[in-house]
Amino acid sequence: MSQNVLGTNVITQIGILVNDIEKTSQAYAEFFGVEKPKWFWTDTVDVAQTEYMGKPSEARSKLAFFDMGSLQLELIEPDQHPSTWRDHLNAHGEGPHHIAFVIEGMKEKIAVMEAKGMKLIQKGEYTGGRYAYMDTFPQLKVMLELLENDK
Amino acid sequence: MSQNVLGTNVITQIGILVNDIEKTSQAYAEFFGVEKPKWFWTDTVDVAQTEYMGKPSEARSKLAFFDMGSLQLELIEPDQHPSTWRDHLNAHGEGPHHIAFVIEGMKEKIAVMEAKGMKLIQKGEYTGGRYAYMDTFPQLKVMLELLENDK
């Protein structure tokens, strides 16, 4: 049996692309009987240092989170700059975009996955950590996001 | 604040449509370092009593499950009979199909959701319970599956 590439099998987040985060947040809040969370922008480019397909991008998204049992459901409304969020939304419309895992050792995990033919699509920083979207679609039929939080 | 329609916010399952359950199961098993689970067919029509878009259907799928933290990831390879699985796969290709919640009182939940404009797409029985796929895509940007297990 092979080793677990990520060192975890705990899905911590499901990310869903939307066109109107206000409207969809309101629908979730009503359906699940919770307060509508405030959405917020991902960090500006100086903090986020976003790279999409190997190039710096000013892309940002509005994000809103709902606690759904042991994981979070993340609504994502991207701006118009190039990103996996914007391109996926344009190509496929609204709907699920990724599942996320909290990992340790981002650089090493990315290297191991790239050696398996799973390409780094987008990466960036956020206050307290960093993320990477990996193109695992050919193998796993869903995109994975790696999240690494500083200790 | 409104009441939680489902009486739960715990996502118990993520369902992913695939063309080749053997191949994708193998990829998951290798990536997450687990044994490849055996897939199995959903029940035959006499047990499943599947209804798709209000009509009986002989549709079946091959299913394989992976434990991913507190929830299951379900791979679904549908046969060629009419079903949400087959139609979604034909229309959108491989990828996420639904998120599932374990509920109580299936008939009542379906009625409440239909009153909100969320249509029943497909329902059926399995040993020990029953399921319903509800078209929540317009509101929640993902399809919900309700699961009710006998006590």
TrEMBL record, chains A, B:
Xref: Pfam families: Glyoxalase_4
Keyword Nucleotide-binding tagged: no
Keywords recorded for this protein, A-Z: Lyase, Metal-binding
UniProt GO BP: L-methylmalonyl-CoA metabolic process
InterPro entries: Glyas_Bleomycin-R_OHBP_Dase, MMCE/EMCE_epimerase, VOC_core
Entry-linked Gene3D superfamilies: 2,3-Dihydroxybiphenyl 1,2-Dioxygenase, domain 1 (3.10.180.10)
Record bears the keyword 4Fe-4S: no
GO-annotated molecular function: lyase activity; metal ion binding; methylmalonyl-CoA epimerase activity
Residue ranges constituting the VOC domain according to the UniProt record: 10-149
PANTHER family in alphabetical order: METHYLMALONYL-COA EPIMERASE, METHYLMALONYL-COA EPIMERASE, MITOCHONDRIAL
The protein's name: Lactoylglutathione lyase
